[in-house]
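Still learning. Show one?

>
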Amino acid sequence: MSLPLALGAVAAPRTYKLTTTSFMRMNEAEERNVYHTVARQTLLERKPNNTYRLAIDVLSFEAENRTFFNSLAADLNRVSNALIVQTDIYGRLDRVENKGEMLDTWQRIRSGVSKKYEKYYPKAFFEAFGQNMQKEGVFEKTIRHKGLHGVLLPGIYGYGYTPDVPVPGTRVLEQFINQVSLPLQITTKVVESQAPNHLTLEVVGTLNQEALQEDDLRRLFRTMADNPLLKVNMHVNCMERYTLEAATGWLLQAEQRLEVAVPGIYQNNVHHTLETVG
């Protein structure tokens, strides 16, 4: 395919099931979990500049291992279960358009949520949560290239793909570890598909060392380890695969693997698999 890949109109929304397996280790603490999300994506508009306006609705969410933290996350995520998003020409999340509806939902549930967790979090935490939704671009940082929205909106459109010609690019996972972002150098290429009417893309990512906030990263982990001399070297492995309808550009299946480690103190492994279910 030499023409730029684009997302075409379809007769009905697509429903997807996302399964996420995660492993996190920080110092001696570890957490493993598996999450199941069902979501619906609707193309509302393809604009003349080849950007997209989409509705992404979370229909259900379940964690196999129910913990305090994913319970809190599920309650807070109620404000973002129905998003209208605008993308750039590559299909990456640019901005969320229905912030007003999100704030209305938050005002409706805020009292109950803050009361539920008042023994663990001060009122200031929930006040900041509401304020961040109103600040330009702040909420978008929490979902861009992450979780469900990172799988559905990975930024694969707008390029002309030709066999044996990899397409280079960059990606930044903002606020990946506290306020420190994870910059990646990525390469995307076409690979052989199992069906003639499918297009399959593979993405390989490595750490973009030049863009890494090394001083901030070093300071963060030395504080966490209570060791001012801790040697901080980050290792990153990123592999992704997307299967799309060749005619429409719509996603059929996807897989993402991201492994990030700082030996001796930190490990974060995430594996997403996405399939079309309706």
Summary: The first strand starts at residue 14 and ends at 26. The domain at 14-276 is CATH 2.30.230 (Lipovitellin-phosvitin complex; beta-sheet shell regions). The chain has a mean pLDDT of 93. Residues 99-116 form the longest helix (18 residues).
